[in-house]
Amino acid sequence: MKFTAKQIADILEGVVVGNPDAEVYKLAKIEEGTEGALTFLSNPKYQKYIYTTQATVAIVNNAFEPEQPLTTTLIKVEDAYQAFTKLLEYYNQVKLMKSGIEQPSVLSENVTYGSDLYLGSFCYVGKNVTIGTNVKIYPNSFIGDNVTIGDNCILFAGVRIYSETEIGNHCVIHSGAIIGSDGFGFAPLEDGSYKKIPQIGNVILEDHVEIGSCTTIDRATLGSTIIRKGVKLDNQIQIAHNVEIGEHTVIASQTGVAGSTKIGKNCIIGGQVGIVGHITIGNGVRIQAQSGIGKSLKDNETVQGSPAFTYGEWTKSYVHFKNLPTIVSDLNELKKQTK
């Protein structure tokens, strides 16, 4: 897919300096630009590369004035970084602009869907499923019975959506994610074995939720596991049954949240965090990577460690942790002197 400098400038409301008919068909970092590539310059420390890059077109700030001859056509904009981001979003929309139902695929009884549906090959859609407008479901995906999917959602290849799941508008679910699998519920028996507790609830994803690859969200035992509006979950995260995550909270990869825990709004949770079940984490909480959370946290706390405690105390304590061998040696020396 090729674009001219003028077409790009029109999208970005910029001005072309150079050849408006210059064509690009790929993106590149400025130091690695080759013929046919589009790049950008926003950080002054990369300015030297504008004179050596082989990129055909470069987006620059309005204030940029070259000090040496250029071979690259420029597109001048108010903010090159934001303009390039806007262009990436536009490119992604064009790339994902598919429609139609590929074969083989299965649409079961009483499935309804809006306009501009894309259903990739080898997809299965169960009974009584409702799919909104402009939804893209990529190949090898499974949609269980009685699932609802809102408008403008993207489900990438290999997504599994179990029955009764409710997905809002503008949601993105990446490859390998599993939404609505059984919660981990087993009752111990007298003989030492375990009896599975039926998991008959569901999962609700509200609007503008994004779920990373290979992340799993378990259905509730009763009621719903709820991921509120604007939540962003990274890859390889485990969300257990009956968990609720508040609006606009973000969680990094390899974090696990045990059953029935409630997480507030606008929290930031680092990677490899472990959170026990049946606790409440307040709004605006910050949890540093690799922390272990074993108790409820109040609004706006920042914690680190395992078990976690306040970030300020942790940083002070860490100074002593790493000096522990010296401290022990000094203590032993003092003991000798007092004998």
Task: Spell out the key features of this protein.
ten-stranded parallel β-sheet, 2 domains, 339 residues, twelve-stranded mixed β-sheet, alpha/beta, Udp-n-acetylmuramoylalanyl-d-glutamate--2,6- Diaminopimelate Ligase, Chain: A, domain 1, 4 helices, UDP N-Acetylglucosamine Acyltransferase, domain 1, lipid a biosynthesis, single chain
Question: Can you tell me the CATH topology of the largest domain?
Answer: UDP N-Acetylglucosamine Acyltransferase, domain 1
CATH architecture of the largest domain: 3 Solenoid
For the record, what is the CATH homologous superfamily label of the largest domain? Hexapeptide repeat proteins
Main sheet attributes: strand count, strand direction, barrel closure = 12 strands, mixed
Question: How much helicity do the residues have?
Answer: 10-25%
Number of domains: 2
CATH class of the largest domain: Mainly Beta
Q: What value does the average pLDDT take? A: 94
InterPro entries: Hexapep (IPR001451), LpxD (IPR007691), Trimer_LpxA-like_sf (IPR011004), UDP_GlcNAc_AcTrfase_non-rep (IPR020573)
Enzyme class: transferase
Function: Catalyzes the N-acylation of UDP-3-O-acylglucosamine using 3-hydroxyacyl-ACP as the acyl donor. Is involved in the biosynthesis of lipid A, a phosphorylated glycolipid that anchors the lipopolysaccharide to the outer membrane of the cell.
Pathway: Bacterial outer membrane biogenesis; LPS lipid A biosynthesis
List the helices and strands and how they pair.
Layout: E1 3-4, H1 5-12, E2 15-17, E3 23-24, E4 26-27, E5 37-40, E6 57-61, E7 73-77, H2 80-95, E8 100-101, E9 106-107, E10 112-113, E11 118-119, E12 124-125, E13 130-131, E14 136-137, E15 142-143, E16 148-149, E17 154-155, E18 160-161, E19 166-167, E20 172-173, E21 178-181, E22 186-188, E23 194-196, E24 202-205, E25 210-211, E26 216-218, E27 224-227, E28 232-233, E29 238-239, E30 244-245, E31 250-251, E32 256-257, E33 262-263, E34 268-269, E35 274-275, E36 280-281, E37 286-287, E38 292-293, E39 302-305, E40 308-310, H3 311-322, H4 324-338
Parallel strand pairs: 4-5, 5-6, 6-7, 8-11, 9-12, 10-13, 11-14, 12-15, 13-16, 14-17, 15-18, 16-19, 17-20, 18-21, 19-24, 20-25, 21-26, 24-27, 25-28, 26-29, 27-30, 28-31, 29-32, 30-33, 31-34, 32-35, 33-36, 34-37, 35-38, 37-39
Antiparallel strand pairs: 1-3, 2-7, 22-23, 39-40
EC number: 2.3.1.191
Domain UDP-3-O-[3-hydroxymyristoyl] glucosamine N-acyltransferase non-repeat region: 21-89
Subunit structure: Homotrimer.
